[in-house]
Amino acid sequence: MDSSLLTEKGESYSKALGNRQVQMIAIGGAIGVGLFLGAGGKLHQVGPSLIFSYAICGVAAYFVMRALGELVLHEPSSGSFVTYARKFIGPWAGFVSGWMYWVNWAMTGIAEITAVAIYVHKWLPDVPQWITALVALGVLIAVNLLSVKLFGELEFWFSVVKVLAIVVFLVTAVGLVLTSADIGGTTAGPHNLTGHSGLFPAGIGIALMTLQAVIFAYSAIEVVGIAAGETKDARKVLPKAINGVVWRIGVFYVGSVLMLAMLLPWPFYNGDESPFVTVFSRLGIPGIGDVMNAVVLTAALSSVNSGLYSTGRILRSLAEKGEAPSFVSRMSGRHVPYGGILFTSVAYLLGVVLNYLVPKDAFDIAIAIASLGVITTWATLVFCQMRLRQAALRGELERPSYRMPLAPYSGWATLGFLLLVVVLMGFSDGAEKVAFYSIPVLAVVLAVGWRFVSKRRERTPLG
């Protein structure tokens, strides 16, 4: 057994995830509610220029995943970027990146678990939404607490549903575009890309404002790296999973948005329903609304499932260093970090209450703050890879054969892009601005937290 997977208490994670499950976890991480639900509102806001936003963010996501791949092949660890930040930057970086990742998933979960309730409400309008939210959350908590293998199996089937839905859509869409089909009174074809005020109908500036939302859409691709500690033959399986991210981004994300923009004029889309539902509903296909509702529900459940899985591992990594409550480090006999999973579950429960009490703005703010966590995680991974490369050049360690392409230039370019996304959030008129102004608050809380942890560590050094 790899000694890097052992905890300080001598307990380890089980190698319960096989190649089939890791491949689908990687795919599942790259397809979420950001595409299934969020693309409609953004298409209505900026038109076909959304294609470029997805492509640019896709390039950044690719380099982040390659940086993660190099780090994982250097040292597979369920602590993932927290372990790497601590090793290549410093103890404080592990603390900050770990808790920012938790903020990301806590905020995402708050939005997603409410989305689950909204989707189910379409079929069960007489059942209060908070009940369906609690039931869904309860089932997913049970799955995560029972075993890693059960989590992997559930995530495998969630991913199968999402991938099938995208593939069916893409095949259908290509056929409709090639035949210039009539879709509810409009003709499908490339002319829809430029025929309604051009590729950038709202201007380049407004198009850039969508980058934050698209970054959120790509969030969770890093979960495959956290799964490294529980993957059989990680050094063989993970490079394949990470390499696949590139064509998945190209086909599933950029391809889907491109097809959506060609199928209908962009003003026909809106943020109140999935753009996929919009297209198929205008085709007059009976029952398609229910089918797509089921797919979007699956995407939301998958996101909550992944959030419970990943935060459980990250919180345990923090607790082992005295940087989180000791409770979250507890491991069950089934090698499941139940303390961390339950800790995150409490935040999700509060989210159910919050979204029941406050208007839709709270949902949007949660997504925007979650994006800050995504950006922090991505930046941490890229910077750690740059430090790994520098250490290798000094002869302190050996770089794995699976490496970040075009380093170090690709790393600096990715960091610059992520900084640009954060700066642009400050120029927004919506929830992104609230998230931007929350940065100093988060910085103060993290600084105080680190000072408290450091003082406590001085008084009672960890054994």
How is the secondary structure organized here?
Layout: H1 19-29, H2 33-36, H3 38-46, H4 50-74, H5 80-88, H6 91-121, H7 129-146, H8 148-178, E1 182-183, E2 186-187, H9 191-194, H10 204-208, H11 211-217, H12 223-226, H13 234-263, H14 275-283, H15 288-319, H16 338-357, H17 360-393, H18 409-425, H19 431-437, H20 439-459
Antiparallel strand pairs: 1-2
Helix pairs in contact: 1-8, 1-13, 4-13, 4-17, 4-18, 5-6, 5-17, 6-7, 6-15, 6-16, 6-17, 7-8, 7-15, 7-16, 8-13, 8-15, 11-17, 14-15, 15-16, 17-18, 17-19
Task: Describe this protein's structure.
With 463 residues, the chain is mainly alpha-helical. Helices cover 71% and strands 1% of the residues. It has helices at residues 19-29, 33-36, 38-46, 50-74, 80-88, 91-121, 129-146, 148-178, 191-194, 204-208, 211-217, 223-226, 234-263, 275-283, 288-319, 338-357, 360-393, 409-425, 431-437, 439-459, and strands spanning 182-183, 186-187. A hairpin with a 2-residue loop joins β1 and β2. α6 (91-121) packs across α7 (129-146) and α6 runs antiparallel to α15 (288-319). It is globular and about 70 Å long. Mean pLDDT is 82; it is low at 1-10.
